[in-house]
Write a structure and sequence with these properties.
By secondary structure, the protein is of the alpha+beta class. The protein has two domains: 2-81, Glutaredoxin (3-Layer(aba) Sandwich); 88-199, Glutathione S-transferase Yfyf (Class Pi), Chain A, domain 2. The protein has nine helices and four strands; from the N terminus they run βαβαββααααααα. A four-stranded mixed beta sheet has the order 2-1-3-4, with helices on one face. A hairpin with a 2-residue loop joins strand 3 and strand 4. Helix 1 (13-24) packs across helix 9 and helix 4 (88-103) crosses helix 7 (160-174). It starts with a strand and ends in a 14-residue tail after the last helix.
């Protein structure tokens, strides 16, 4: 059985992505959670990953790090899970928007860190982050319109693309980003996903404040 090493569920958007891909498709794994900015985190992650970051997937004594690499590895090992769309063009589009999420939207990430337990509707959103918000919402609308038949997710059925945009759905909820129509429908579908509900419950139950992950406030 796999072991997935993750960080705090309230904050770790990169951990959420492969965790959701595994849980939502019923692939069995053991979860090992490490608190950010702790001695145990530094020691245990360094023992299995030269990157020193989470998430890390262990398949026996073989380690895969980086959220996208983990999702790709699992998709190859479990083709029946259909983690990528079956249609070639849909699959290419899914990989395109996942790669865009993996490497882009820096202003959005920096301005709106994932913080599931929080409600922060009044933060200042700079123009660059507003542009990122608009681009993400356009991706959701366009993808749903072209490929979303057959289900409520970006490509109809749940895929790695949804796992990669789930932390953004969480961010938009935390920071009260305006969302209507197809964007709101998609957000509601992601939030209603049983695996996402499980992650969110666990995030609330942590009750751990990590000031390094909350530069916008000094306490809850």
């Amino acid at each position: 059985m796999y072991t997935l090493i993750i960080g705090n569920k309230n904050y770790s958007s990169w951990s959420l992505r492969p965790w959701l891909a595994l849980r939502a498709t019923g692939i069995a794994f053991n979860e090992q959670k490490l608190g950010f900015f702790t001695e145990a985190f530094t020691r245990q992650v360094a023992a299995v990953s030269p990157a020193g970051l989470v998430p890390v997937l262990l398949d026996g004594d073989f380690a895969v790090w980086d959220s996208l690499a983990i999702c790709e590895y699992v998709a190859e090992q479990h083709p029946d899970a259909a983690l990528w769309p079956k249609d070639a063009k849909a699959r290419a589009r899914a990989r395109s928007i996942v790669a865009q999420m993996h490497s882009g939207f820096t202003a959005l990430r920096n301005t709106m860190p994932m913080n599931i337990e929080a409600h922060l509707p009044d933060i200042d959103v700079p123009e660059a982050a507003q542009q990122d918000i608009g681009r993400v919402q356009a991706i959701w609308r366009d993808t749903r319109a072209k490929f979303g038949q057959g289900g409520p997710f970006l490509f109809g059925e749940f895929s790695i693309a949804d796992a990669f945009y789930a932390p953004v759905v969480s961010r938009f909820t935390t920071y009260n980003v305006a969302a209507t129509g197809a964007v709101r429908d998609y957000m509601d579908a992601v939030i209603a996903l049983p695996a996402m509900q499980e992650w969110m419950r666990d995030a609330h139950a942590e009750a751990t404040f990590v000031p390094e992950d909350e530069p916008y406030r000094t306490h809850r």
